[in-house]
Amino acid sequence: MSGEKNTNVPVRDLSVKQGFKLSKFLVSWEMVLIYILLLINVVLMVSRTNLYFSPGTIQAIIQSGMDVCPLVLGMILILMLGDIDVSVASTMIFASMATGLCCQAGMSAFVGVIVGIAAGALCGLFNGYFVAYVEMPAVIVTIATSMLFRGIVKIILDVNVLKQFPSFYTTVAWTNIAGIPLSLILFLVMGAVFVFLLQKSRFGRKLYIIGNNATCAQYSGIDVRKTKLIVFVLMGVMCGVASIFFVGRMGGSVSSTMGTGYEMTAIAICVLGGVSTNGGKGKVYGPIIATLIMAFLTYTLGLLEVDANTRKIVTGFILIIAVLIPNVNRQLIANLKLKFVYKGNKNVEALNIKTAAEVKALKATIDETKKDSAMNDADKSAKIKKCEDKIAALQKKCKEQTEIWLREQKEDERKAKERFAAK
Amino acid sequence: MRTNNKSTLSKITESRNFGLVLGLIVLLIVAAIITPSMYSLNSILNMLQNNAVYGLLAIGEMMVIITAGIDISIGATLSLTGVICCRLMAENPGVPGIVWLVLSLVIGALCGAFNGLLVGYFKMVPMIATLGTMYIFRGFSFLFSGGEWWFPHQFTEGYMAFATKKILGIPSILWILIIVFVLAILFLGYTSKGRRIYAIGTNQESAQVAGIKQPRVVFLAMTLCGMLAGLSGMLYTANYATCSYMIGDAYEMTAIAICILGGVSIVGGKGKVDGVIIGFLMMSVITYFISLLPGLSVWSDAIQGAIIIAAVALNKFTERSAEKRALKERSALI
Amino acid sequence: MSEYILELKDVVKTFGGVTALNGVHFQLKQGEIHALMGENGAGKSTFIKVITGVHQPDSGLMLLEGEKITLRSTEDSAKLGIAAIYQHVTAFPDLSVTENIFMGQEIKNKLGIYNWKLMTKRAKELIEPLSKNIDVSKPMSTLSVAQQQLVEIAKALSRDARILIMDEPTASLSRRECEELYQIAERLRDEGVSIIFITHKFEDMYRLATRVTVFRDSQYIGCWDVDKISNQKLIGEMVGRELTQMYPPKHAKIGDVVMKVNNISKEGYFKDVSFDVRKGEILALTGLVGAGRTEVCQNIFGIMTPDSGSIELEGKEVKIKSPIDALKLGIGLLPEDRQTQGLINELPIYQNVTSADMSKFIKAGKLDESAEEAKAIELCQKIQLKAKDISAPPSSLSGGNQQKVVFAKLLNCDLKVLILDEPTKGIDVGAKYSIYEIMNELTANGYAIIMVSSEMPEVLGMADRIVVMRNGRVAGQFDTEGTTQEMILEASLKQEDGRESES
């Protein structure tokens, strides 16, 4: 303690690094997410034991949540910049349509997939151009393009449904390899690529820098516009990839009204995964775990016969709570206590904190004394008594002083009021 | 003082509203050439009547955008209010219509207040907060409706009168809209609460120093926005005499588009009611136009999206050219 | 009635664990101009906020005309006639001058409806005696900094302020604007307003104040009559030690011309600017704020690109379209505002240091963080950065150490020319000295330095040659030897007044 209070910080040896701390690691956000995931699993296991252990259940749960996973990965990068993309669902449908139209026209699956991803990239390019080079707010651009892209799909498809898609689409979404869903494997592989991209590469560092301070990034010789454009194009590409998972999940068909709300789920998962919507904060691991949490949660709610619309409410609340959690910290609680318990009087606050600390120390002494085998019982009880008296005296003094101060404060306020009234 | 000598005429031509009015006139002429039937008093009133809720929503949205925020949950608020009012009205046909009007204001205000709590007091990013509440409100709307629809025969006269009853030949929904416009002009231009909304949008730090309680102002703006959305929910159902939980889908987009068209700055601090009124008229003409031409209805989403982008891009480019002009003026002094 | 209109006794204010004011005293006499001085972070800003009711003190007494007062908000202080004009002018840029003046005390009828007509009339009446060139219906953002300050003064006057606090009002004013401000301040004093004048400039203090109070490290140091305390002693009190020498000795050898700027112009900012800088040399770019110095630097560094003219580096003409080009060519910029342009406060120090050139830490496509850390530690030790940990965020450092982080960031790149835009702005006296040492060390190692500075003593103390800019043009070049403050001032002011009289 005393070392930290020393204001004259000497030139320290900067090369001394803080070591790995298990206690810190265990309460990190990613670990909290894993606890939540485990908790949901336990709840499910206990409440529906038969179902949980019947073959294929877990796989089905995981598969059900994988159709958003490419969107989640792309969204991490977008949020990292401090931007947002609410057009991802529309872009995904747009890409699906592009693939579907190619396949309908008799082109090969390979061409279809490439065209789909390219269509996604094109949408991303469109968003990126307006956000990065025309400097329009991402919210507005993507709100508009979400209408525009889906609008184009509506114009082209009207009420028709596209049904010809490469056959591997359904394979991706519905098969297991060695008991592990293929979609999960693909997700983890893509996740690993994104971990490298964001956390290990120069490109990722640039995103952190831009997200935290775009002006400084410019002065540091980073091409902010180009980087932003690339991120939006990447998001578009991921929308194209998502179309594979999505169409497969839907059993190989697409219409213009499908997939609404996927942007919301993707953003909610990212936020739950610890990515800040202000930019510059977060890692890839969190959203990966959060994707699984969302899958299990949705499935569990489904089992509890909660319908899709109610699940929307839950997703909405998760989004809001996940953003609010970092705001609820010690400082907030202290502020609230100051405002309501101590009536905004800092003196009272300080006194109470000091007294509480002293009382705690005395109580610790009591505990120690009780355990101390070297002392005889009479001495022990005498010492304990002394400490207890001290505690009582301290608390009494604190209470009295608090009352005096609060009374003074009230008096001051009254006087002030009179004074102002007179003016 | 060269600046003061500028003629009033050049001031008018430089203003953004002038451009908008010009655009509106061009649009009207084009519309007249393609569909001459558009110009009867009836069809114009009809057009305005059917678009009135957009005007209400846009006024609310405008207040939020001026605080440098955004509210994309208003469509869902509209749906929730509409559903609750319709359901209760259908179950209690004897209750006078004014009760539902008041109820809609209250429900809307509650929804808005929840947003305001999250954004103002808990400092959430407005986009994220209202994205969340949009799903929550829409979900509750479904729960209350139970997936049901309400049809004209279930609507009471007193309920529908608030939208369709004609006073001096003008439907009451338009009267309400006009009252809201007037109140908004008074509130935003001439009261301290209204001016505070501009103040926090233009510079939050200054606002704090000036003793303006930012959370409170944001809370107020979002509550008012929710209130207007609630009102639109009731009026929308009264106007069409149908209701389901799906109403009002993406209406927030239209409201935002109107604001942007009307010159409300998306970064906050700037925007006037008269601009929004002109934006509202333009959007009404466009949507009406689309609905008149056969086969064009599938185009409406795409067109609206394109309009938003074009309007913001236009704002940006005019800003840039104004900057360039200012630089050139300064150059002359070097 | 007390002798003092405002008196503060033993005022304590803490934020969390940080003590911002530690038992501070202050006494303001009726109708005096009282200077308040101290290094940055001495607690002056918190002090004003306590007086104006933005912050409430933890303990201590506040007496207005001998009577105890408690302020709960800025409204309270305004009602008591206390007004403040803050350092960064706190206007609402999109709102009109009228509205800015009447913010918080608008004229309205019983229904709460504003009377704009009356407000505009009153605003005109208030502004006219201060300046004839302000249109009250225009948005605040169209005014110059000096004009905005006048609006703030008008605002204070509209509230019948008896106590006026001015927080470094002259920091970004030209000399002539300063003189106008002095006159207004004196007039207000004669009308009975008591003024607390916070400043870094001794010039302000000598010109205006009768007494001066000094704060250091959140504490009250003392109060003196201005004519009874020497410059040297005052600096000593502010720093806590006598500064025998303000500038470290130079030991660089000046070599050949490294960079040459030929007639560059940028519309709206500057015209036909030419100068050169040599190896091992410090070239000062000075002049009034707004003369185009910062913009010239930004054009050389590629933040903007000049409309015409050329830049030569080691005899070859180079095209610089962006900071990326500039850094590649070996030109670095230490920006004017380190908080928004120089630092990423949320990322660790070492990532800040490497941010301008990460290419050398890439191993097999991957950023090698341990190499980054090692390099950052090496650079930070070289410039004696005081930090807890190389992974700590820069926000945990003092202003001077933050600036050192930005220096380390530049040193990480392989540069030839360093442009330092106000390198000691907002840094306390002690830390300034070590920044000067770093600069001398760099020139000794062959760097060429262009230093933008508004502080005349700094320019004369550090630079080898001086380029003075005035209104977007080069107004004169001087060798430091034999040049006096007066000569530089003359060059930076001369024609400005002539031009004014033309129009």
How would you describe this structure to a colleague?
The complex is a heterotrimer of chains A (423), B (334) and C (503). With 423 residues, chain A is an all-alpha fold. Chain A has a two-stranded antiparallel ribbon. Chain A has 20 helices and two strands. Chain A has two domains: 23-327, Orthogonal Bundle (ABC transporter involved in vitamin B12 uptake, BtuC); 331-422. Chain A starts with a helix and ends with a helix. Chain B has 334 residues and is mainly α. Chain B has a single domain, classed as ABC transporter involved in vitamin B12 uptake, BtuC (Orthogonal Bundle), CATH 1.10.3470. Chain B has helices at 8-14, 16-34, 41-66, 74-91, 97-121, 126-145, 157-164, 172-190, 192-202, 204-209, 214-240, 251-261, 273-292, 300-331; strands at residues 166-167, 170-171. A two-stranded antiparallel ribbon of chain B has the order 1-2. The longest helix of chain B has 32 residues, at 300-331. In chain B, 50% of the residues are buried. Chain C folds into three domains: 4-239, P-loop containing nucleotide triphosphate hydrolases (Rossmann fold, 3-Layer(aba) Sandwich), CATH 3.40.50.300; 245-330 and 415-503, P-loop containing nucleotide triphosphate hydrolases (Rossmann fold, 3-Layer(aba) Sandwich); 344-413, no CATH class. Chain C has helices at residues 44-51, 74-79, 97-102, 116-127, 145-158, 175-190, 202-208, 231-239, 293-301, 323-329, 338-342, 349-354, 369-382, 399-412, 429-444, 456-462, 485-502, and strands at 4-15, 18-29, 33-37, 59-64, 67-68, 82-85, 163-167, 194-198, 211-216, 219-225, 257-266, 270-278, 282-287, 308-313, 316-318, 331-334, 362-363, 366-367, 417-421, 448-452, 465-470, 473-479. In chain C, helix 13 crosses helix 14 (399-412). The model of chain C is unreliable at 495-503 (pLDDT under 50). Chains in contact: A-B, A-C, B-C. At the A-C interface, helix 12, helix 13, helix 19 and helix 20 of A face helix 10, helix 11, strand 18 and helix 13 of C.
